[in-house]
Design brief:
Blueprint (H helix, E strand, L loop, with lengths): L1 E4 L2 E4 L18 E4 L5 E4 L6 E4 L5 E5 L7 E6 L5 E5 L4 E5 L5 E5 L35 E4 L5 E5 L5 E5 L3
Antiparallel strand pairs: 1-2, 3-4, 4-5, 5-6, 7-8, 8-9, 9-10, 11-12, 12-13
C-alpha cells in the first residue's frame, strides 16, 4: 500500500522488524536512527532498547531493568543515546552499547508543579498549576548541532528545558 503523494510517496514494509521468537514491542514509544542507519526502538517491553539494521535484523538490545516508563529516544551525532523515562522523571545518556554515562533529573522524584498523577482524565492537563524545574514526566529529548540538550517536560510540567554542554 502506498502512502503520500507525488515525489513523497512511500510503501509500507510490513514485518520489517525481525524480533527473536517470543520477543515483541510493548508500547513502542520512541524511535531514532543513528549515522550508520541503525534503528533504535524504545519500548515498554522486556527489552526496552532494541537496535536493528536497516533491513530489520535485530543487532542488539539493552536497558533491561533500567526504566520505569520509557518514552522518548534520540541518538546524538557522536552516537550517544538519550532516553527519557517519564515514570522515573529522568533523561539518561548511554553509549550505543548501553553503558550509562549521565542521568539528568532525580530518579523517582518529580518536580513540584501541582500535577496530579491520576485525576479525572478531563482534568489531567489542568492539574498542572505552575511550571517547575526538571522533571515531571519528561517526554522527549533533542540535541542541537553545538551540543545543547533540549527536553520536553510536558506530561506533568509545562516546560522545555535546555542544558548547555558546559
Amino acid at each position: 500500500m502506498s502512502y503520500g503523494r507525488g515525489k513523497y510517496t512511500y510503501e509500507l514494509v510490513d514485518g520489517w522488524a525481525k524480533c527473536p521468537e517470543g520477543w515483541s514491542f510493548i508500547d513502542a514509544c520512541g524511535l531514532s536512527v543513528d549515522s550508520q542507519d541503525r534503528v533504535y526502538v524504545f519500548n515498554r517491553g522486556a527489552h526496552p532498547v532494541m537496535v536493528f539494521d536497516r533491513e530489520g535484523n535485530l543487532l542488539t538490545s539493552w536497558g533491561e531493568g533500567l526504566f520505569k516508563t520509557p518514552h522518548g529516544i534520540c541518538v546524538g551525532p557522536d552516537g550517544s543515546v538519550y532516553c527519557t523515562d517519564c515514570g522515573n522523571h529522568t533523561v539518561s545518556k548511554f553509549t550505543p552499547e548501553g553503558k550509562l554515562l549521565l542521568v539528568l533529573g532525580n530518579k523517582g522524584q518529580p518536580s513540584e508543579t501541582g500535577f496530579m498523577e491520576h485525576p479525572d482524565p478531563d482534568d489531567m492537563v489542568a492539574s498542572i498549576r505552575r511550571s517547575g524545574p526538571p522533571f515531571n514526566r519528561p517526554t522527549g529529548v533533542a540535541l542541537s548541532s553545538s551540543g545543547e540538550i533540549y527536553v520536553s517536560d510536558g506530561y506533568g510540567n509545562a516546560r522545555v528545558h535546555k542544558f548547555s554542554p558546559d
